[in-house]
Request: fold
Amino acid sequence: MGNIAVSDLRSNLMKVLKQIELGSSIDITSRGKVVAKLVPPDYNMKIAKDRLKAIRKTAILHDVLSPIDDTWEATKS
Reply:
């Protein structure tokens, strides 16, 4: 991920958009402070998939369909 100033973004918009299209994400800064982020359209999906891949390494699956021995009462509201 890189940073780009607003003024540089204006000058190089097509080049920056090409980087975004290729999968990069870029923070946009104004006076040294990050004010926005440009990300590819499927960025959230990619983050979710990466997190699931990480969880898969340590996850333990149990039987979630069989009844358990604990009894409980439902209350009406």
Q: What stands out?
A: The chain has a mean pLDDT of 86. The radius of gyration is 23 Å.
